[in-house]
Fold these 3 entries.
Entry 1:
Amino acid sequence: MDKILIVGLGLIGGSYAKGLTKMGYNVYGYNRNKDAIDYAKKNKIIIDGSSEFTEDFIGEFDRIIFSLYPKVFKEYIEKYGSFIKKGAIISDVTGVKESIVTDIQNILGDSVEFIAAHPMAGKEVYGIENADEKIFENANYIITPTKKNTDKGIAFATEIGEALNFRKISLLTPKEHDEMIAFLSQLTHCIAVALMTCKDSEDLVNYTGDSFRDLTRIANINENMWTELFLMNKSALLKEMDSFINCMSKLRDFINNEDEEKIKNMMRLSTERRKYFNK
Amino acid sequence: MDKILIVGLGLIGGSYAKGLTKMGYNVYGYNRNKDAIDYAKKNKIIIDGSSEFTEDFIGEFDRIIFSLYPKVFKEYIEKYGSFIKKGAIISDVTGVKESIVTDIQNILGDSVEFIAAHPMAGKEVYGIENADEKIFENANYIITPTKKNTDKGIAFATEIGEALNFRKISLLTPKEHDEMIAFLSQLTHCIAVALMTCKDSEDLVNYTGDSFRDLTRIANINENMWTELFLMNKSALLKEMDSFINCMSKLRDFINNEDEEKIKNMMRLSTERRKYFNK
């Protein structure tokens, strides 16, 4: 039962493989591009792997973790879902849940259990060359079971989260997960991108202090992955964007009207709420 | 010429006093509340001080730095400007410039030179008890001379910036300073306050990663100081807020229309511009 397949050896899949190998799992890998397989074998991140998604190879595993972009993940399950061994449990690392979990569970039917999970970790670099299992140490790991999931499925996802040494493992519904991600992660990336693009600020670099740097660190963004994540969580994200734009506009109007008390009240609420987030 | 008076022994004034004392200056202090004077004397941050702003005390100094909120600074100059010794040079630490520099220079006339400066440093705590001259080490120091200033005045402000070991000392016009501050500092504080207040996020604290914490660190805000700074830089700040709200709204519409190419182009520009700000 310590044999596990990671599908997709990018930054996250590679970091999973590294961490699980360190914990004594027998880790195998699939990756479309053979270079990543060669690199992973050479560096003892996996025991063996394949760059071809064949029934012979895939059908051997009782446990598989898909580390792919959400749309590609869905495509693989549509095309190759039948290759997966009956009775196997599969999981994922996808950053959106509502738009994929039920669909994938429906495609797989009763013979394979899909338990969705989201490691809330990352780096601003890509590829297995940058894989690093330490990115999970201070991060959250969210499992999003549905009614179709069993205790055995949830136990598998939990085991992976524990083996990778996440700071905190939580259970949320796919909907709760997507609302949380829309606010805490997607909205913050939208804000960083808007701030970075609303002014040609190159000549200001010499005057930049910590606050501007803090707010724009995530403005260095993988446009393919994040566009996909935004669009797959569109309605939850638009709700948070509208609510934020509305708050910015209110503050703008308070300043325009020189309404000192309303500005100060907003700042007091801000200070009070921020206290919960002090580490 | 190493005798210097700091007016206002709060966090910034106290940190100035500490740093200048360390560099061998003979530092004296004025503070309305006597406790800060007692603390500063006891801790050898100043040689001596007064909690009364009298002509006898003030008139002794050739160099004075006012570390007060902008409106209070203006009030002190209006009421007590005539106490300052003829030929003295005074400076400040105020975070807005256009709305105070010319006014104060006009009140003082030709007998006292006011050279404005802004140490772009701070902490989320207050008072001389938290004074720490190290906050200047990685910070910028901006001198904003006008036509009324002399080389001698600029040299004094520069000397203070060097003595306090700022990372970089720059000269800007008051207008350039205020535009830069509106974007890099005031807009970022507005964003943090809006983000922190647009949702009751207390139940999300367990899922919060670095990006949300980075964007809201400055949401813990001194409402009296920042409201004053925002209103004294109103037109420059409103311009930046409008431009940012416009960019957020554009991104919102691209997502609503599922216009992938436009979202990706915005993210590419964001990534490209962020590179200039990598330390």
Entry 2:
Amino acid sequence: MHFDEEQIENLEKVYRINLINSCSGYKSANLIGSVSDEGINNLAVFSSITHLGSNPPLLGFFLRPTEIVPRHTYLNIKQNSFYTINSIQEEFADSAHHTSAKYEREISEFDITKITSENINGFPAPYVKSSSIKIGMKFVEEIKINYNKSRLIVGKIVELNVDDNLISKDGFLNLNKANIATVSGCDGYSFPKRNIRKGYQKPNKS
Amino acid sequence: MHFDEEQIENLEKVYRINLINSCSGYKSANLIGSVSDEGINNLAVFSSITHLGSNPPLLGFFLRPTEIVPRHTYLNIKQNSFYTINSIQEEFADSAHHTSAKYEREISEFDITKITSENINGFPAPYVKSSSIKIGMKFVEEIKINYNKSRLIVGKIVELNVDDNLISKDGFLNLNKANIATVSGCDGYSFPKRNIRKGYQKPNKS
């Protein structure tokens, strides 16, 4: 099946969203925890969290201008600088996905979904207790993408909490040991069971 | 296991790269095809390709300042504007991963890996023949991330070629039907076999 530029532009809206959202492959699935100045905890699912570098350790994620739920996350990060990124596992993926529903800012998705929050060593944003990987983040930079008015939010990893059994000798985390989710499109969840490490590649000798 | 900011900074280099690269979850796995002004086709594996919006249909990816292989991709895109993004399937994942080896610019990874290139309707960059999803891209914007001197390359989807059997009625692509890869860390490949769609979420009625 071939779609050219004009055909893509003229696709029915939901069809285009599903097609374009799923064509680039599997995405990370994480819950961002944040807190407002009024002390209301927010929790929202994101599929755009991306590795930007390991030294300094940076992660980014994208915000669309029109989205309503992620805007609470954005407001909280701008107010408080700190937020958390938490892995989603099969056991609570339904609840995690439900955080995409557009609740008012006064309502905490932790209360709605019964996902339990956790305070670790006084970190100033809520973690997800059941997550196998819990990352403490500090906001460092906001970058506008002119072409579609979306924003890249860049943060630095300031702490990392990981279940012991996931860590390999060389630091690699075996995500499949914790049934960690990956998302495709807007709502397709997979839980990879197996992982093959292919190693560092050097040029073949000619 | 808990790592604080200082502990992360002091980790052994390879350990830190593996840990930080895998902590944010599964990543997309794609091959970017591009061509130099001299007509040499380039092919390189990327795990940072991210959905930025569906109208206009935009995808972004990140380039580290120090990476050598991806710089060929970058130079080609700056010269020619057009490039392709191609899915990686289990059958040729070893060859796809081998494109991360640092070959000279005069050498085409298509030749080295025996991955077959494909010209579709005269599109000015090479596709990967065996890929189930082949995306034709046009460069639109380059954005610098000040904090670590990396770059976000933004492109518009100008054509899309997809195996018929992957497309659902509502436009969603079933990546698992083609054994499409996802990457964790630098070299961990998974091929999710199952996919659960959780649907659009509305707030619970109170």
Entry 3:
Amino acid sequence: MKSAVVNDHGHPQSVPAVMPTHPERGQEAGLETMCETIRRAIAAANLTPDDITAIGVATPGLMDIKAGLILDPPNLKPWKNVPVRDHIKSVFNKPTAYQNDANAAAYGEFWVGAAQEAKSMVLFTLGTGVGGGIIINDVIIEGEHSHGGELGHLRIDTPDRGRICGCGARGCLEAYASATNVVNRAREEMACWRGPTKLREYYTANDDVFTARVIFDLANGGDELAQKVVDDTAYYLALGACALIATVDPETVVFGGGMVAAGERFRALIEGHVKRLGLPFPTKSVKITFASLGSDAGFIGAAGCARLLVLPKPA
Amino acid sequence: MKSAVVNDHGHPQSVPAVMPTHPERGQEAGLETMCETIRRAIAAANLTPDDITAIGVATPGLMDIKAGLILDPPNLKPWKNVPVRDHIKSVFNKPTAYQNDANAAAYGEFWVGAAQEAKSMVLFTLGTGVGGGIIINDVIIEGEHSHGGELGHLRIDTPDRGRICGCGARGCLEAYASATNVVNRAREEMACWRGPTKLREYYTANDDVFTARVIFDLANGGDELAQKVVDDTAYYLALGACALIATVDPETVVFGGGMVAAGERFRALIEGHVKRLGLPFPTKSVKITFASLGSDAGFIGAAGCARLLVLPKPA
């Protein structure tokens, strides 16, 4: 768990307080850790709880955003129906916003990050999985069942032929473009690659160091096979972006998470594929950019959601 | 062009006035025809322009919804940058809303049609092409470039293998599920079908009568090949619905247009594929339904958009 005090301009007021979640200790302990992380963040900013206007909390799914509940996400077993929002609200006695973590990161980038000039944006967050968030005119598309912006499960290939995703289905973007699957695809490509490639050194030496980051670095260094894997990744992400262009037609599509480190060459590859494959009229003008808030996007965005609770309504 | 007076409850007050568009006569003539259609609709309802509170106009794309302009849609050549909203507004001196036609149809179904109980909905409109509209909490997702809800151009197969769409790209939903392409697929299936099928009678007798409607009717009558074509259509539409479930996670997905006539068996087929192929949590609860307003959805929805202009804002 990570917590920080963020001011009205979206600036963190100290380094974030971080504590391990330990889901196995149960949800009561988890809620207390959450509160303690918040207290430490306030202290780290040399403030007291009285100085805090509102609190924003973001968690991974499954969740019920409107009800403020963590339901029963596989990564947080044995938690079930955890009343996150109401607990935090009653402990600190502050207006408390609750949001999905990827949605919060998207809101952070929308508010003060890469898409701060945009009226609408879509974020693809690239990590162990592929997450996402959609913001239109300051409104987060939460979805009727709190599953808005589950962009890792957009299909980019057909259910009979696509790669198998962790969700059990075939063809999901996540099965191609998550960090894990970038590595998996690199393994598969190596098996039929006849030319030289530095990728083999990492693969054979120690499987633990064979990461998406290594692949991106080797690609930037000119390794041909690594470049193929990276180019394919850009193509898959572009297909995801094209689906969003045909549905919500955003002003900006932002790519965040680990792959930002892959640099401008990777961004330009995604953009090239989008311009080639997207619906021409909206695609001509859509902006393709990297996230700018790094791993702070989530708590900055959560704070931004809290800010919306107390902001005077426009006339 | 079609126009009708609609009351505050979404009920048309007479049969709609209909006039041919004649785009080839130029856009000045077109705007005058539009005004005349509105005047005839008012007269048909035994009302005078003074009785009208606001006017809603919906047109096909390409358009700039915010600016109230028809840009240069291929079906309306030689029109270019036609100031529809401002013209109607100044001629009738009424608050005037402007919207994409499929978005307006979606709003009609959302307001008083098949999704009137829903807080969020997606409409797929099935005709010569496949259109769409997305409504979330009474807000139409217009898109930054007026291309929100262009659901016919969602890809359901890959750009290298998919069917070729009228837009030039491969894999668009429209290339599979539009009325035209249902017929095209039936032709292709017939070419390799060894069993009996009544489809051949229609195909050989007169190509003009070989319509999607015929295929759906024969499927309902038990023709095996027609059923395959219809089942595949349901599958393709379900893939489109799944993409919307993973992006906006709507409460209801509505299918409108000609294929509504295919009846409950077709709806149930779509639903079955969605339940099988969609992201499990939101898909469990999503409603799959047919549109209920028929070809009135567009003008009812346009009137609904006009109503939003004059409705008191919620406190």
